[in-house]
# Entry
Amino acid sequence: MHRMGLQTLNDIFLTVCRSRRERVMLQRGAQGWMPISATEIYRSVVGVARALESWGVGKGDRVAILSENRPEWTITDFATLALGAVTVPVYATQTADQTSLLLNDCGARVIAVSTRYQLEKVLTIQRHTPVERILVMDEFETAHAVHMQRLMLQGPGEFDAEFDGRAQAVHPDDLATIIYTSGTTGTSKGAMLTHGNMATNIACSLDGFGVGTKEEVSVSFLPLSHVTARHVDFALLYRGVVLAYCPDLAQLAQALAEVRPATFIAVPRVYEKIRQQVILKTAGFPRNAIYRWALAVGRAHRDETLAGVQPAGLSWKIADRLVFSKVRAGMGGKAEEFISGGAPLGRELAEWYADIGIPIHEGYGLTETSPVIAVNNPRAHKLGTVGKPLANVEVRIAEDGEVLVRGPSIFKGYWNRPEETRDSFVDGWFKTGDIGHLDSDGFLSITDRKKDLIKTSGGKFIAPQPIENSLKLNPLIGTAVVLGDRRKFPAVLIAPHFPVLEDWARANHVDFESRQALVANDRVQALYEGIVEEMNQNLARFERMKRVLVVSEEFSETDGTLTHTFKVRRRGIEARYRERIDEMYEKAEASVG
# Structure
């Protein structure tokens, strides 16, 4: 397949359909996993596109999609793009108010929704938005929406030359999608990506991987409303990989066991959870002794694993059979390539996976860069970096350490926000907002978000992410947020991982009536102070956290404390606990003073 031929996202649709493959997608139904063929996809896309067109949707018009991952998501996307219209993804977890703001900002006249729940959410806000028509994917009685299944069956059984011609007439510079960044700072902005932005990035992001060289499956579970998942799914479809859709993370373990993917692509949060489960399952004697022995064996062979070489010694084979193979089995057992994106992986997490024989290829990018800027691959991998920049992307480091990029995959700007668009470029280079450096071999490392750097009142800069990522590796910690901007010393706010903490409390005879009572307990406070103190031993003196604030809430994307990719919304958390944080620092000052 000649990848230089990839000019627009419509080229992906036409390539997939002309392959005439029997299995392009898999959807789980009552009878198990059902395949969807290239012919069915073509018929469905054309059927939906004709309906959109009959409602007046044409070039440049916006069509929103509010749905979990499922074949109809991609079918609606392809249908919209084939008309030269613009797809606007909405996270399935967003509230009615957030959805209303987004639909008004982009001016969407049509929205496709997945379920009755999502339909009802849209119906509560519809009259405050430009939405005229609603498509619904599930089959149920309603007078308020058009059934998408019916439209999908109305498409042609054969290729329609006129339809294909129009899809091919869409230009690389035409707008393809507006993706609203979840923004760790709060307000979301619509990043405008053209067909060419995404196509040039998709054409080379998986170079160096063996993806698509044989019949293989990948599970689509990261939300398609996020640029990483959308990019990856397009790239996999283009390379002939079968996509098995998993609409709900709760079904992921079952989906992995059943379809056994060859490529495993996830955000760090998923890799963290898998590691935590392994630690919990190997607690207690004799399992813990075996686990620790196996990790030591793996560590001795870490360099081979990272170079893509399977260690050959007998002890490694035993460790693999007793421990490592069981971890891989939890991810389906067949995965050969593991990729992480969407948020920083953290060095210790990458090391732990390397020690159990899994090199995770970490990548880096932003919504505004379509998204991949750099990615490690089996041919060029360096632990602790995000890999070498893609062949068609230029990266340079500004004097203050900010990563600047330029190339054909950089977005056209923010929808309706000319000032913010202007501010995000300097001399034609896009400002990523991340601090990083390039080493002598050309590998890029990212330290932290520029605006997240903590500057103590003593003038020292602290990068919070590496510290938070290390703390989160402890199964007792759900989320950790380093505090200390314009303060005399750093401190840390911890939201426990309550299932594990409650088990600890029962095992240690700590009685509690509520989570508030549990975190207020002196022994629990001492437990977390001990974890932080251990961490402090590895930090520079000015980075050491002198106070620990344990809170009784778990953070989530729904309450505004985490983004949709589970990154910490620092401002939201600091605002919520402002009084308690101020009080903690005042007490500390008093005790010192």
